[in-house]
Amino acid sequence: MKSAHLKKLGAVALMALSTIQVHASDLFPELPAKTVGVQVKIQNFSAADAAQIKTAGFSFVRFGVWSDSLSAAAYQKQVSNAFAAAKSAGLPVLLTVRAIKPLTSSPGDTRELTTAGESFANAVTGLEKSYSAQLVAIEIWNEPDLETYWPTRNFDTTFVPFMSAMCKSLQAPSSTPRVGFGFARPPTAGSASTVALSRIVSEYPKCLNAISYHPYGMTSTQISNAQAFIQQNFHLPGVISEWGISALGSNGGVDGQARKIAAFIAEMKKLNIPLTSIYEWKNSDSGSNDREKNFGLLTADGEPKPARMSAETQLNAQ
After folding, report:
1. Which of 40, 78, 172, 276 is the Cys-Cys partner for 45 at CB 3.0 to 4.6 Å?
2. Model confidence over 289-315: pLDDT tens digits?
3. What is the pTM of this model?
């Protein structure tokens, strides 16, 4: 009996894995066979960067756009320049869109949240129309489960009304895949993100094509379990829109960073993750501390770190 039960469980697991792999092959038609990209910042992303990223073996770039800045002509130009740089090297874009200001002036005002969701949907639609030919996908938001990136606050009560209004406004079919919501941690049983997703996905099943999250510090087993949880609970594949390792001494410095990035890319290949984005291409001088400043595969001045070559070696391995 035990042997038969184990065989049955194994068959179920294989069926689930097969489902995930089907999603992986069909989800992002703009991607080539390789599914690993790297994050850049639009303010310092150039055609020269794009060429190097392409040479390294990355298949796309990820960058963010703030919806509440799009009315400014100078910002629009910065966004279009970033897309032009990506296009020059034939790199499609994973575009993450969020607002940087609170969505309401009155905490808990559902009508304001609904209006904000509709307005945000208009921004997403506008970006899709402008850049659809270059988009891997549009990612809705970035780390809303952290207060820093959800300035409206009170995630438990404000997130669902806003995102539901957005999803309702995005009912028309789109050729651009949409993923969300860039959670800082993957959804787990009973977590606030799981509660929110359960409502949004059940009410608007066509709003998202995948669930995105950031598995910093997680093992490959933990990531595999997260992928299974997402598939089983939301019937959507999980994707990794951000992961990185800072070149701090506690991580082994630049050599430790290189080893861990190579190992991570190798593990994601084995897990058949549909899309993975590495954070980030260059160090960030604007980071608030040494950890935040040193995630780059290159220095802020563009000098390669060991991680640059280790990533290229792994990306181009058979």
Report:
1. 40
2. 889 999 999 999 999 999 999 999 999
3. 0.91
